[in-house]
Amino acid sequence: MAEKPNLRIALAGNPNAGKTSLFNVLTGSRQHVGNYPGVTVEKRWGHYKAKNQRIDVVDLPGTYSLTSFSPEERVARDELLHTQHDVVVVVADSTALKRSLMLLVQIMQLGATPVLCLNMSDEAMASGQRIDRKRLELELGFPVIETVGHKGKGREDLIEAIFRATELETSLATPSLGVDLDKAIETLSANIGLSGILAQTKAWVATRLLVGDESIADELGAGIRQESIEEAKAAAELLAKTNDQDISLLVTERYFTFIDRLLEKVVKSPRRSDARARSEAIDRVLANPDLGLPVFGVIMFSIFWITFNLGETPMGWIEDGQGLLSDWVTSLWPEGSDSALRSLLVDGVIAGVGGVVVFLPNIVLLFLGLALLEDSGYMARAAYLMDRVMHRFGLHGKSFVPMMTGFGCSIPGIMATRTLENERDRLTTMLVLPLMSCGARLPIWMLLIPAFFAPPWRAPALWGIYCIGILLAFVLALALRKTVLAGEAAPFVMELPPYRIPTVRALVKKMTERAWIYLRKAGTIILAVSIVLWVMSTYPKKDSYEVDAQIAQGVEFTAKEIEQARGGEDLRYSVAGRLGKAVEPLVEPMGFDWKLGTSMIGAFAAKEVFVANLGIVYSMGETTKDSDDLRNKLSRDYSPLVGFSLMLFLLISAPCMATFAITRRESGSWRWAFLQLGGLTLVAFLISTAVYQIGRLLGAG
Length: 701
Ligand code: GDP
Ligand code: MG
What we know:
By secondary structure, this protein is α/β, with parallel strands linked by helices. The protein folds into four domains: 4-166, P-loop containing nucleotide triphosphate hydrolases (Rossmann fold), CATH 3.40.50.300; 179-245; 282-309 and 359-489 and 639-701, no CATH class; 310-358 and 503-638, no CATH class. It has a seven-stranded mixed beta sheet, sandwiched between helices. α23 (504-538) crosses α28 (609-621). It is elongated and about 110 Å long. Residues 623-627 have low confidence and may be disordered.
């Protein structure tokens, strides 16, 4: 039924303001979901009927502003610029009005016919906030309503308000940004040259031109009178000079002044909620400009300490269980038999997959720690504190949240960079993000750190490796900012949410989710790669051994030594051994031998494979099952210097395959993905080599 709509409306708003909830409330089940052409941003559209009219609704992607260019914001902006909507419903989160109104002001400038929907009104009410809706309606000149989106409350009001908005006769006044700015915008728009549907966007386009937004000039170039761009430049210079302030900051500040004045008139918070008061008290310490960062360091340190120390005991249980399993499997075959299947199960699957599964408790603990930080509201403070530091490195406080997400896994971290407005901020963050040591690398640290560090130094070493990652990310970000991604970081606007006590349910959910992802990965990718690696390190087999030749010459060995020597020769003769030998010259400058070299190759598939692979290599190399665990074998074979150089290399070098793929997708080009892969690996090589060579010179080898 290709019926023509009588009205076309759009829902706009900040992420999580409740747009989709309201969309569902309006359209019921009559909806479609797809992607905007050319971008992976979700598009949802549908329709409803009211007063015998058909009303088409589109749910725009969540955005904080229309000024900038994350894919979401670009899509929302384009849709609002180029499509005629009869009404634009701005969905505001009533508990974060300031941020929501920032978008409203821009939409007003666009000349749209808005309806302001104060959603989350239940939460605002509960916190004691009262909004004088009638007064707000009067001030703004268009309908304002209150809703509770997820409960469907306010549906009728919303439908009614949309009709009311279409009946507004006079064209709406644009928000006042102060006499001087208003004047400049008016003068510019009078002659800007936009026609057709774009004509109504004049005030907004003029503002964009004033702040020197080149993309809008490029995009609408043909529509804009060429002289206007020059005029805007001159006007901006004058404004900046008379106000003694950067023009973009000036405009942002004026937007906020407009919003503050408005809110002063209509919002009453009769009693400051207890939660707010408590949050502010806590923030005097936690978000303190001097104390905040050291406290943040201590909090992170505690998380790593717990990850390490509380993880040891359950880890021991899993290890014991695996020992029993592997003994049991071994006992299925007669003693001394040379079964390939047994070796595959014991040396391949149990040593490989088991070597990874053992670290499950640590993973769960780390994610518990991160979930606590996130759900309590502390993470937002961390971002706020880091903003000052990060600006020096050409990064953005906002980048810190995706980066912290990267401690879990780079993939959601890279996706979370979508919240960054500026394309350069976003690319910079994305490219350095794999330096945040992800959960898949935790097993590596759990294996290597105890092998090379004395007990009191283990938690500090773990903390140190994360800090090195962060620091290096900053340094590389700065390097990118000075070269291929030159430009200024955008100013940071962020509201700190109140502290909340995290619910046990949410925490348990996050942990089980993570545990499950980890186990699933162990049961699929790691299992598959372990089998491949086992085959590669078993075949081809040797038929005569050097050690036998030596015995024939009368050299004496114990039975154990003979077995070990044969195992070692077999391994070196196998495909994996040869591959390792082939890469040895490449890894030698960093202090690694061929065993470490082979293990690294697999790590590109998934970082945990490094651990699985070492487990296999060591299990194959010594057919005698002595009680030595892998950590002891490592500390026997390598010096702490090699251990440290190895950790650095694994921290910095090539992100895993999945990260590579997601970087390609999110950056939209192979070029950035390859730059990340090649660049990080090169930096890793240089740093590890320098550390190893200098360490050796100093006699630490
Ligand atoms: P969108 O990102 O703007 O599309 O927001 P969603 O519609 O997905 O809503 C985000 C979350 O807020 C969901 O968990 C909703 O259930 C919840 N939500 C939506 N509207 C309200 C509301 O009025 N009050 C409360 N308390 N929660 C709401
Ligand atoms: Mg949504």
